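Checklist before submission:
- one chain only
- standard amino acids only
- sequence pasted in full

Submission:
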Amino acid sequence: MGIDSLPLSDQNASYCGLLNGRHAHWPPVGRAERRLYVERLKGTVKWFNNAKGYGFIGRSDGPDVFVHYSAITSEGYKSLQEGDPVEFEITEGQKGPQAANVIKAA
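Returned file contents:
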């Protein structure tokens, strides 16, 4: 599974300086145009409990990642199904690494 880059605004840059042991990259542009590029990871939902609102995403290039329903980027009822391909970022949660900005991949 691969890694992509996603531009984020300066507003979000303060908490994205270091992700999963890797530094985020600043392209060489003027300060007003500066954007943070965050690695997007791909994985597959191992399991997700709708009643409890959390589960885990499996990755081929690292350990499984905790995912909470609030990290799912979708409209309406936020849920994932076992086997769903997803794209996500990793942030540091209260109990360690967790998925953020999770979207279902095609």
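Reviewer check: Residues 10-13 form the longest helix (4 residues).
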